[in-house]
Amino acid sequence: MRNPWLDIPLDDYERHMSLPEIGQAQMIAYDFKSLLEVYSPSSVAVIGCAGGNGFDCIDSLRTTRIVGIDVNPDYIRCARSRFSKRFPILELYAQNIETAEKLFKPVQMIYAALVFEYIEFSLGLARMVEHLRAGGILAAILQLPSSQRIVSPSPFRSLKPLEQFMVLRSPEDFEASAKTIGLTKLSSKKLTLESGKEFEALVFRKPLKK
After folding, report:
1. H or E stretch at 147
2. What helix, strand, coil percent values describe the chain, rounded to 5?
3. For residues 135 and 131, what is the distance between their CA atoms, to the nearest angstrom?
4. Has residue 96 been placed in a domain?
5. Is residue 147's pLDDT more than 60?
6. Are the C-beta atoms of residues 44 and 111 closer than 8 Å to each other?
7. Exposed e or buried b for every residue in 25-63, given b needs 16+ CB within 10 A?
8. Of residues 69, 88, 89, 16, the one with CA closest to residue 79
9. For the chain, how far is it from start to end, CA to CA, in angstroms?
10. For the residues of 27-66, what is the DSSP string, one character each?
11. pLDDT at residue 164 in the model
12. Which of 5, 55, 192, 199 has the smallest number of Cβ neighbours within 10 A?
C-alpha cells in the first residue's frame, strides 16, 4: 500500500492542522517549545518534520544542530528552503524512520508528535533510540481514542486517506515498549483540545552509558 503521506500537499496539511477548530499545530508548537525550554538541548531531531514543524520554536543560539526527518521529499525540500539560513547546522532527510539505518549522528533530543500512529511503533521507537545520545530525551505525542473521527473533518480532502492508514496506540503499550529498550519515563500528561480530542504527551530519557 502506497503511503498516503506522499500524496498530501504540504499546504493542505499545514492549513488543516492550523484550523482553529482543529488546533493541533498550536498544541504541538506549545509542547515542543516547552520541552526545549526545560531541557535546552544543543541538538534536536524532529521526526515527521513536514515543512519544518516546530522549527520556529527553536532558539538557534542554544540549539545549534537541527535534524529533520520526513517520508515526503517535497516536505523536506520546503523545510530546506524555509530554514537553511536560520540554523548553523541543519540536516534534512527524506526517509522512513522505520526502515532507515543510521541516518545521522545521535542528538540530545528527539521529538515525535503524532508520528507513531503511522508506523510500527516498537520498531520506530527502537530506530529513534539508536539516534539518541546516552542520557538524551525522547518526547512523543500520541492521539488517544475518542468518539470523534480519527482524522478531524476539514475542507482539505487530501487528508481523508489517512483514516485507513492511521492506527491509534495506547500510552500503556507505548510505555511498555519504551521500557523494554531501556528508556526511563520522566513524565506524561493529557492534552485536551477545544474540539474534545485528547492526546498524551510522554517524555523518556535514555540511560547514561555505564
Report:
1. none
2. 35, 25, 40
3. 12
4. yes
5. no
6. yes
7. bebbbebbeebbeebebebbbbbbbbbbbbbebbeeeeb
8. 69
9. 43
10. HHHHHHHHHHHHH--SEEEEET-TTTTTGGG--TTT--EE
11. 86
12. 192
The total domain count for the chain is 1
Q: What is the rounded distance in angstroms from the CA atom of residue 163 to the CA atom of residue 149?
A: 8
The residue written with cell numbers 529533520 in the block is 68
Whether residue 74 lies inside any domain: the answer is yes
| 210 within a domain of the structure (yes/no) | no
Interatomic CA distance for residues 128 and 6, integer angstroms: 21
In total, the chain counts a number of residues equal to 210
Q: Mind listing the pLDDT tens digit for each residue in 102-143?
A: 889 999 999 999 999 999 888 899 999 999 999 999 999 999
**Residue 19 in contact with residue 154, Cβ under 8 Å?**
yes
By residue range, what is the domain housing residue 27?
A: 4-205
| The Cα angle at residue 179 between residues 175 and 183, in degrees rounded to 5 | 100
Asked, for residue 44, whether it belongs to a domain, the answer is: yes
Q: How many CA atoms lie within 13 A of 126 on its CB side?
A: 11
Write the CATH number for 83. 3.40.50.150
Question: In terms of DSSP bridges, do strands 198-205 and 184-192 run parallel, antiparallel, or are they unpaired?
Answer: antiparallel
